[in-house]
């Protein structure tokens, strides 16, 4: 067992999760567990105490206030291993530094950098930081009072707070993000997308991805997808090929997982933005191109998405271009699938694809070392184009 695993005293660990207690409760057998862990155990149909294996005639739980108090005291002092990493600073003092209205940006930045060290150097330290309630505090620092024009120091505080929050979210329930449902927080989100640094915009896109990737936050995902100003700013990142473009593509892809968001994304120019990114001449330098093609394919599930591709001067052309790449076949399958969708019911799309050399591209793909699944789809597209050509 390494030092990081020895940070949490044995009595402060839940026997099921082996992590720090967040809400200790005691069963009739006298054993204490973390409430979320034991509730999951019982919900799975288990009728015994996990440690003693005694049958639970009474499944009721009693909060263990004594243990909770001991853990809180221990946290306030700061576990020894954490203090060895950040000497002379207790967790309670760091929390106060972030909370206090009297703290300067410089003091907050110093504290945030210390928290970054704790998160990076001692993974089990995340339990302590979450137990102390640092995650909502960090999110408040990001979305609290945001103005159109912020000082460089204020933006740096937002950058560091957002970075810490994203790392802690990996170890936490996502319901903390519900604060973003408040109108003031949504407004701050849009303002930060407009006036934040590239690092802030990238972090916010990653936050959108986290929201969109969990069933816990589906309502929030729908709310973000209905915030047109926000979608406009995300599409702007992709369209204007900036440092945060790749993160913007991931955000569009994640938001598209919710059916109700697709139409709004298309209306705010997501299809045109993705095509602009894909069709750029510096294609080989963009690692997110395959993801952009995949995101585009998802939006083609909506009629307005198909129309947007057909009406874009580079729409069909960029998809044909993506069918066969000498270096690899990333994005080829999505490009072929996308062309099948747009060419199926559009003579204009079929004629444009053929004029752009789709038949040659497909034949090259079939002669390449691509997967059997990609070749099957390529044959299907060839068959579609030939059959429709005969009908036309």
Structure, described:
The chain has 392 residues and is mainly alpha-helical. Helices cover 63% and strands 2% of the residues. The protein contains 22 helices and three strands. The protein has helices spanning 35-43, 65-77, 80-85, 91-99, 105-121, 125-131, 134-143, 152-169, 183-195, 198-212, 218-225, 228-239, 245-255, 259-267, 270-278, 289-299, 303-311, 315-323, 332-344, 347-355, 358-366, 372-391; strands at residues 24-26, 32-34, 62-63. Strands 2-1-3 form a three-stranded antiparallel sheet. Helix 12 (228-239) packs parallel to helix 15 (270-278). The protein is globular and about 80 Å long. The N and C termini lie far apart (71 Å).
Quick overview:
The chain is an all-alpha fold and 392 residues long. It is 63% helix and 2% strand. A 3-stranded antiparallel beta sheet has the order 2-1-3.
How are the SSEs ordered, and which strands pair?
Elements (H helix, E strand, L loop, with lengths): L23 E3 L5 E3 H9 L18 E2 L1 H13 L2 H6 L5 H9 L5 H17 L3 H7 L2 H10 L8 H18 L13 H13 L2 H15 L5 H8 L2 H12 L5 H11 L3 H9 L2 H9 L10 H11 L3 H9 L3 H9 L8 H13 L2 H9 L2 H9 L5 H20 L1
Antiparallel strand pairs: 1-2, 1-3
Main beta sheet: strand number and arrangement? Answer: 3 strands, antiparallel
The class by helix and strand makeup works out as mainly alpha
The unreliable regions are: 1-6
Spatial separation of the terminal alpha carbons: 71 Å
Q: How would you describe the shape?
A: globular
Number of strands: 3
Radius of gyration: 26 Å
- Biggest sheet, spatial arrangement of strands: 2-1-3
Instruction: Tell me the series of helices and strands, N- to C-terminal.
Output: EEHEHHHHHHHHHHHHHHHHHHHHH
Give the helix proportion (percent range): 55-70%
Q: What proportion strand? A: under 5%
Count of runs of 4 or more consecutive helical residues:
22
User: Mean of the pLDDT scores?
Assistant: 86
């Amino acid at each position: 067992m390494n030092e990081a695993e020895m940070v949490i005293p044995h009595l402060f660990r839940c026997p099921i999760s082996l992590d720090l207690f967040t809400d200790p409760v005691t069963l009739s057998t006298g054993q204490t567990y973390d409430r979320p862990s034991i509730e999951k155990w019982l919900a799975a149909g288990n009728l015994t105490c996990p440690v003693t294996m005694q049958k639970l005639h009474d499944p009721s739980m009693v909060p263990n206030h004594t243990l909770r108090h001991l853990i809180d005291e221990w946290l306030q002092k700061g576990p020894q291993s954490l203090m060895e990493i950040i000497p002379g600073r207790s967790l309670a003092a760091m929390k106060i530094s972030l909370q206090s209205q009297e703290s300067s940006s410089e003091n907050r930045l110093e504290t945030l950098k210390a928290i970054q060290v704790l998160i990076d150097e001692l993974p089990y330290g995340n339990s302590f930081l979450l137990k102390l309630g640092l995650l909502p505090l960090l999110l408040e620092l990001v979305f609290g009072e945001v103005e159109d024009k912020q000082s460089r120091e204020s933006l740096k505080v937002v950058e560091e707070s957002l970075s810490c929050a994203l790392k802690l979210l990996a170890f936490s329930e996502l319901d903390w993000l519900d604060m973003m449902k408040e109108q003031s927080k949504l407004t701050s989100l849009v303002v930060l997308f407009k006036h934040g640094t590239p690092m802030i915009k990238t972090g916010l896109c990653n936050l959108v991805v986290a929201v969109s990737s969990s069933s816990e936050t589906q309502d929030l995902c729908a709310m973000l997808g209905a915030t047109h100003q926000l979608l406009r700013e995300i599409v702007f990142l992709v369209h204007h090929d900036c440092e945060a473009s790749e993160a913007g593509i991931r955000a569009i892809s994640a938001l598209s997982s919710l059916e109700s968001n697709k139409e709004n994304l298309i209306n705010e120019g997501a299809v045109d933005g993705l095509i602009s990114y894909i069709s750029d001449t510096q294609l080989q330098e963009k690692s997110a191109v395959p993801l952009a093609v995949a995101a585009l394919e998802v939006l083609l599930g909506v009629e307005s998405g198909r129309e947007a591709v057909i009406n874009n001067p580079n729409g069909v052309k960029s998809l044909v271009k993506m069918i066969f790449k000498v270096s690899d076949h990333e994005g080829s399958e999505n490009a072929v699938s996308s062309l099948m969708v747009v060419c199926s019911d559009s003579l204009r799309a079929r004629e444009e694809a053929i004029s752009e050399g789709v038949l040659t591209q497909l034949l090259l793909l079939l002669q390449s070392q691509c997967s059997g699944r990609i070749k099957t789809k390529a044959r299907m597209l060839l068959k579609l184009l030939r059959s429709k050509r005969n009908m036309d």
